[in-house]
């Protein structure tokens, strides 16, 4: 369970397993209970089948581990899945189809914010795959935990990740790195961005960082504009008045 210490907008500075969040979750496949995976863009009936089977399988799992929120592109199914898993006792959730959501800013916000409103505030959301310039925005709207797999994936294909940009080292030979060195660099960049996010939350300036980083990504900037236009009430609920 996540213990919330401080808000900066909807972003949450908290404690989870002795770590300050937002933070990396040391990923271990054995921590994830069995679910029913389903692609993102599928008919409603298939997504509902996935959710029902995920809930059924979760009943036999260890409630101290991580459950998966399925539901494909349907926010109502995501909420059903999350609420049912919470009733079983789960408090740590992996958001399925994270890569697909990053390509769909409107769906990304709709699903995350719908979930954040529907589930217990002390439940933690884990987003396993995120570009670095998207992380401040994701933390801003309520994601608590992030994964290393994105850093390692980009390293395998020769992409150097920085807080603002991803560089193909064949096209932009900034460093003469081998794949292991790229992985180390990418992991350190990921850790830096999360330390930066936590520092901004403590100082009440995360929104400034969000705007800065979103400028480097058309998808992130689209998401920020949609957030401001369509989810003002959500932001206002957590914004401190002076």
Q: What would you call the shape?
A: globular
Q: What separation lies between the terminal Cα atoms?
A: 31 Å
Quaternary structure type: single chain
The CATH homologous superfamily: Queuine tRNA-ribosyltransferase-like
Query: What's the order of the H and E elements?
Result: EEEEHEHEHHEHEHEEHHHH
Percent helix range: 40-55%
Strand line-up in the sheet with most strands: 4-8-7-6-5
Q: Any guess at the CATH architecture? A: Alpha-Beta Barrel
Number of domains: 1
The CATH class assignment is Alpha Beta
Number of separate strands: 10
- Please name the CATH topology: TIM Barrel
**Average pLDDT:** 92
Which features characterize this protein?
single chain, 242 residues, alpha/beta, TIM Barrel, five-stranded parallel β-sheet
Task: Explain what you see.
- The chain is of the alpha/beta class and 242 residues long.
- It has a single domain, classed as TIM Barrel, CATH 3.20.20.105.
- It is 48% helix and 15% strand.
- It is built from ten helices and ten strands.
- The chain has helices at 44-58, 75-88, 98-102, 105-118, 135-141, 149-156, 179-203, 206-214, 218-230, 232-238, and strands spanning 3-8, 11-16, 19-21, 23-24, 67-69, 92-95, 124-127, 145-146, 159-161, 166-168.
- The strands form three sheets. The chain has a five-stranded parallel beta sheet with strand order 4-8-7-6-5.
- Strand 2 (11-16) and strand 3 (19-21) form a beta hairpin.
- Helix 2 (75-88) packs parallel to helix 4 (105-118), helix 6 packs antiparallel against helix 7 (179-203) and helix 8 (206-214) packs across helix 9 (218-230).
- The radius of gyration is 18 Å and the shape is globular.
- The protein starts with a strand and ends with a helix.
- The model has no long low-confidence stretch (mean pLDDT 92).
């Amino acid at each position: 369970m996540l213990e919330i210490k401080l808000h900066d907008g909807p972003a949450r500075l908290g404690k989870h397993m002795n770590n300050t969040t937002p933070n990396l979750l040391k990923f271990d496949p054995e921590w994830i209970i069995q679910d029913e995976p389903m692609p993102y863009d599928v008919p409603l009936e298939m997504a509902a089948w996935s959710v029902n089977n995920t809930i059924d399988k979760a009943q036999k799992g260890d409630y101290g581990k991580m459950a998966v929120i399925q539901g494909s592109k349907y926010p109502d199914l995501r909420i059903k899945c999350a609420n049912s898993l919470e009733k079983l006792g789960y408090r740590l959730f992996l958001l399925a189809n994270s890569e697909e959501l990053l390509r769909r800013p409107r769906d990304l916000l709709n699903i995350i914010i719908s979930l954040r409103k529907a589930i217990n505030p002390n439940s933690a959301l884990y987003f396993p795959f995120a570009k670095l310039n998207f992380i401040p925005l994701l933390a801003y709207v309520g994601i608590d935990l992030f994964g290393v797999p994105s850093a390692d994936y980009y390293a395998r294909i020769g992409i150097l990740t920085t807080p603002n940009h991803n560089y193909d080292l064949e096209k932009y030979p900034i460093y003469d790195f081998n794949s292991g060195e790229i992985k180390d660099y990418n992991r350190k960049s990921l850790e830096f961005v999360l330390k930066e996010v936590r520092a901004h939350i403590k100082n009440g300036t995360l929104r400034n960082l969000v705007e800065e980083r979103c400028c480097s990504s058309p998808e992130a900037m689209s998401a920020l504009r949609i957030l401001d236009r369509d989810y003002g009430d959500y932001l206002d609920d957590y914004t401190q008045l002076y």
